[in-house]
Amino acid sequence: MLHIVDDEDVIRDSLAWLAQSRRINAFGYATAQAFLQQAGAAFDADGDCVLLDVRMPDLNGVAVFEQLSGRGLTGQMPVIFLTGHGDVPLAVDMLKRGAFDFFEKPFNDNQLMDRVQEALAQSRAAGAGAAVRERLATLSAREREVLDLILAGKMNKVVADKLGISMRTVEVHRAHILDKMRVKTAVELAGLLK
């Protein structure tokens, strides 16, 4: 989902239309507050990206970016700044602080949408990584030990000997690991955790 945060109706509408021409779902927010109330409520499986105007009457884009950063959302929700006032020092500062990109109005439509698509891809990857970390967190300490040995290519008998447990216990742990990680084979597991 592309989140367009700009106080100008014309800009929001044209950016939404431009996004839809690339088959990107977009939603516009007239105020920074309206966006912040929704930010991070639910992440889109296809990724999230924010087009954020620097200058807005209620709360400027830099303050919004700081709030997103403070909530730890900029990894899963990359921010592309838009500004009608070329401010190179501000652009450099925002990029150093983790903004995905910075565009000056008027901008090249294709270049902007190309960057939006790259940001959405990054967001999808970050979301997938977060999901894997959440699944890993559900494993017990013993399951983590078994997982490490499985990923090292050890057979069940070797895992059992190394951990001082029965082969049947290893098989049970292995089944739980595959189930919790939502994969069917050790090969899929290795691919998920590479």
What brief labels describe this structure?
alpha/beta; five-stranded parallel β-sheet; 5 strands; 194 residues; elongated; 9 helices
Mean pLDDT, rounded to whole units?
88
Work out the strand percent. 5-15%
The main sheet orders its strands as 2-1-3-4-5
Structural class determined from secondary elements: alpha/beta
**Secondary-structure element order, N to C:** EHEHEHEHEHHHHH
Description:
Helices cover 57% and strands 11% of the residues. With 194 residues, the protein is of the alpha/beta class. The protein has a five-stranded parallel sheet, with helices on both faces. Helix 3 links the parallel strand 3 and strand 4 (79-83). The longest helix is centred in the middle third of the chain and has 29 residues, at 109-137. The chain is elongated, with a radius of gyration of 22 Å. The mean pLDDT is 88.
Fold topology:
Blueprint (H helix, E strand, L loop, with lengths): L1 E4 L3 H13 L4 E4 L2 H7 L10 E5 L7 H10 L8 E5 L4 H9 L4 E4 L4 H29 L3 H11 L4 H8 L3 H15 L4 H8 L1
Parallel strand pairs: 1-2, 1-3, 3-4, 4-5
In short:
Helix content is 57%, strand content 11%.
